[in-house]
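User: ATP-binding protein. Structure?
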Amino acid sequence: MSQQMSVPEFIDRNDEMEFLTGHYNSRIPELIIIYGRRRVGKTTLISRFLKNLPGFYFMASEEGQASNIRDFADVAGDYLRDPDFKRANYPDWQALFKSLISHRNFSPDSGERVVIVIDEFSYLISKDKGVPSAFQKIWDLILSDENIMLILSGSSVSTMETEVLGYKSPLYGRRTGQWQVEPLFYPYIRKFLPYSEEELIMVWSVIGGVPAYLRLFNPEITLWENILQQMLSKGSYLYLEAEILLHYEFREAGNYISILRALSSGFTTLSSVCQQTGLDKSMVSKYLSVLAGIHLIVDEMPVTAHAGYRKRHYRILDPYLNFWFAVVYPHRMEIETKKGSEVLESARAELPVYFGKMFENLCMEIIQNGFFFEDMRFSKLGRWWFKENEIDIVGFDESSDKALFCECKWMNLSEMKARGILKSLTKKSPLVEWKNQKRSEVYALIAKEISGKENLRAEGYRLFDLEDLRELSRSYLSGWK
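Assistant: Predicted structure:
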């Protein structure tokens, strides 16, 4: 189906590496927090950073404090080249770190800073809520005067944001930097798969930019074969990953699953989610707030609305969870009985609507990242609706008093059809209240393919299709190494 391709071991993460390197080269002791969802690439990033530096990496387990202290001492003993350090008994973390720092082999002869990484720090917290207090004391009493860089990393975003980064955390105010590792930006997906631009957008719509998920997709077979093998087959990794992710992140995972399923089914307001799930309004409101806080969903209001606007809409932000709840979760019984092919065949009839919605989300993301409208700097960018009127993307550039009005269509458009969409857009735009008397207006359309786009561009409209996206993506990646 496609030519062979080799996927680089390490893709993008230039900003993250620059962040870590900058803190390593500072002249103060560093306590860095790295966090992000499962499989997003935190461990690969940290391992690459640590590769040529003095220090060591430890991954915590869920076995409890005593076991983790023993395992940490074992790894530290290897770094120190001291078998006796491994065999010693340490009553707590503080005693262990005190012995580590005072060891004759701890600091290299070169005087370089030592890096200590504790990955899955959230595991330690889940087993012992006193861990943040213990590490606060370790930092204050032992590490804060040393030439050291301590990196605490975790995959439970909620735990890391509340128990480590939160205002009430004992570690609050100790950190010298933090970074949430995000999925890869859309253009990098082509580094994994030799698909057409249309297929790459569908890949993004199904699994997003999570590196571990992208590596599961075999570049030698079709998109649909990959979906069948990796998502719609019993025992496949991505068939169960969503449930594992949610149970890992939340104690009451069942309620969160009910809410996400409702959102996926089109119930996007607080009241409709309550009706669909049967859960109490205050409870649903709390759960939605938590989901938004860890960036699995987004709560939306019209781009012109004030902060207190109540009629918010909620949508799943994560493409993989979106697809899983739309296609996988409702058909688990068929998948369990090896009817994944039938599920896929049935789903393909509905998927153009799904891909259309995801295309809008992708267009918003790539515009936020500077694609298509490089001459505009948006102070606000989002959806807009009022009564029966909707516009996919509206953006305001305060510096130039320009307003962007853009529609996104997952279809091939004739010139006549494109003109009709743009004409409708110009009729709706006066309803958008923002500097109506002084603004200049930019009308835009993004679609799969637009016939006659040069004619429409000559008339002042901004038009982009997948051909333009492909060229912009290639240009964006041209400086990537």
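The domain at 14-180 is CATH 3.40.50.300 (Rossmann fold). Residues 340-368 form the longest helix (29 residues).
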